[in-house]
Amino acid sequence: MSSLKRIGVILLVAIVLIAMSTSFVSNDILNRAIIIGLGLDLSEDNQLVVTAEVVSPGNGSEQVGTFSKTITVTGQTIAHAIQQISQQMGKEASLGQCALLVLGKSLYTKVDFSQIVDFFIHSYNFKESSAICCAKGEAKELLNYGEAMSQSASLAVIAMLQQQSQSVGLPTNSLLQYARSQKELSCTGFTNYVEFVPSANTDSQNPNKTQGYFAYKKLVVFRKNKFVCTLDEQHLRALSLLTEDVSGEVFIVEVQGEKLTFIVSKKKVDLKIVDQTVQVDVQLKCRLARTDDFGLSGNLTVQTDEDIPQDVLDKLQLDAKKLLQDFVAFQQQNNVDLMGLHERYRQKLGTNNFTSSFAMDQIAFDISVTVKQN
Question: How many Cβ atoms sit within 10 Å of the Cβ of residue 319?
């Protein structure tokens, strides 16, 4: 056989193999319902209400690109509900790309959902890195809202929780981090609290879908997968200050009748135990937040940072320290450990009855804060 014929045969075989593999992949995708977000609620008769946001490729007369639809089913267990989704859609429900788990208020405030968390953690198909959050109302409602800059509620929430924690002062948790927190000595952890704020915007392609944006201003605290309390915005800011890899916290200080906004751009958090006292030392570097035309009547020009007066830095320091003191008092009143103190005591004193079960109001705190200009 000549060299030219050999090349021709090789090319023919390659084309056939590529065509066959493309056909199989295409059929595999078309036969799957790719779930990107799951919402869990509890019905009045204690059945699980599962809402799945399913992404579909546009084809034929459908819109070009990618869009999503939601489907809601009821089941006795998660596995049963997933099976119901597959049956209703006529496709295999795929959890491999699911990046968001939303807990509805009817579920997380009423029951111990340990079995639900265990199902997702031990699932070979569900990603442990998926974001987990709590809805203000029902998860079903949240996943059916429309966000102004996104066609998908799940993708809008995921983008905020997973990508912006280092720029907007927002502590976040993955499913794995949350699950581990419930198994550690403190058995305490949190999820983000997501609230939908409606607006006057409309979507011509979905005229019946309420438009707006999602707000993230609170955290929900759990102990052993049972609801304990909700952190308000001030406590969230304090937890953010104590989380070294989160930045972007905002402080507002009134100077000579004018309110100035300062942003935390760098920080160092040192937490240690000395003679049974928890010493918390927080060092912050702040900068003044302003636009390029600040104070120049609209003329855009390059601005240089002005020196922040020492009395303003002192005011920032007092505000930050008061924020942390109130947060510590809140943890003591509710006996929740969001600072990982049980583990720190175990590392210092070893495992014993005290380190495994001490109450937060048994611990003394010494808090110091230093604020400098960045």
Answer: 15
